Amino acid sequence: MNKKISKYYDQKQASEYEARRNNLVWHAESEVFDKIKNRIASKYDNSMEVLDVGAGTGRWIPHLHKVSSKYVGTDISENMLNQAKLKLEICPEEFKDKVKLIVSSVNKMSQNVSGKYDLIIMTRFLSHFSINEIRNILNIVKNFSKGDLIVSVRVADKSINLLSEILDLILRSPIGAIKRFRKSGRLTYARLDTDYNAVIAQSGFRVTKKNLVTQDKYNRYEYWELTLD
Ligand SMILES: C[S@@+](CC[C@H](N)C(=O)[O-])C[C@H]1O[C@@H](n2cnc3c(N)ncnc32)[C@H](O)[C@@H]1O
User: Fold this and answer.
1) Edge-to-edge strand list for the sheet holding 205-215
2) What is the pLDDT of residues 25-68, one digit of tens each?
3) Which residues contact 16 (CB under 8 A, 6 or more apart)?
4) To test ligand 1's pocket by mutation, which of 23, 53, 76 has the most ligand atoms within 8 angstroms of CB?
5) Ligand 1 binding pocket includes 128 (Cβ within 6 Å)
6) Structural domain that includes position 73
7) What domain count does the chain have?
8) I need a labelling partner for 217 at 20 to 30 A (CA). Which of 9, 51, 108, 164 fits?
9) Backbone conformation region of residue 133, classed left if phi is above 0, alpha if psi is from -120 to 50, else beta
10) pTM recorded for the entire structure
11) Which residues, given as ranges, of the chain have pLDDT below 50?
């Protein structure tokens, strides 16, 4: 797993994380998340057990307290989870007893987390990992799943010319290009959805719905709903 990413979130990034991301994409994500969450929660009578992997600052806590009987947020960064604790201040008192925030790397979850969950969330998380690591992560979270999973995925528009996307990225932001390559081993998101579909199929999960969050010239940002077969 990527140690640099873990260190990055453990520094002052934790206190600035949400302020830096409070933009149109962030709000579009919240809208899409709420729609999905409401639909899933109604299956569980608004009383579902939720596991948020790479929960970060606990951005989903205020969206979940009315529909969850249990919320477990895990993250490798204690500083990020300290920010998540602050979210509890705006939740009803009775919800606070239903929340556990656990410092754990995703690959140590079997040692640190117990139980099975109606809904598992992994937003803005899988993009930190290579496709082989994602295969491993899906196998890990499968052991905690009773049914539903939400993941965020960035996919390339099929009609684009790959070369022009790569050239555009390099010209626009050479540093961005280097960062993207170091993070994910890719300069383009082309075929990322094909890779995701393949590892998901191998994991025993099935994609049931792809929800568009936002798109730019080259890419679509989507929230995928998965279910355990
Ligand atoms: C971009 S943030 C996403 C936070 C939140 N899920 C969201 O949607 O805003 C990624 C989070 O993944 C956590 N993370 C990175 N590597 C991890 C690992 N190996 N195990 C668990 N958490 C990890 C980071 O500490 C960070 O809080």
Assistant:
1) 99-103, 68-75, 48-53, 117-122, 145-156, 219-228, 205-215
2) 899 999 999 999 999 999 999 999 999 999 999 999 999 999 99
3) none
4) 76
5) yes
6) 3-156+189-228
7) 1
8) 9
9) alpha
10) 0.89
11) none
**CATH code at position 106:** 3.40.50.150
**C-beta of 54 in contact with ligand 1 (< 6 A):** yes
Ligand 1 neighbour 82 (Cβ under 6 A): no
pLDDT of residue 39: 97
* pLDDT attached to residue 6: 65
User: Residue 218 Cα, ligand 1 centroid: separation in angstroms?
Assistant: 25
**Distance between CA atoms of residues 118 and 14, nearest Å:** 28
Residue 215 lies in a domain: yes
Q: How confident is the model at residue 186, as a pLDDT?
A: 74
| Ligand 1 binding pocket includes 6 (Cβ within 6 Å) | yes
Say if 175 falls within a structural domain.
no
Mean pLDDT, the chain, as a whole number? 90
173 domain residue, yes or no: no
Q: Which of 12, 33, 30, 152 has the alpha carbon at shortest distance from 82?
A: 12
Confirm or reject: Cβ of 58 under 6 Å from ligand 1. Answer: no
Q: Whose CA is nearest to atom 26 of ligand 1?
A: 56
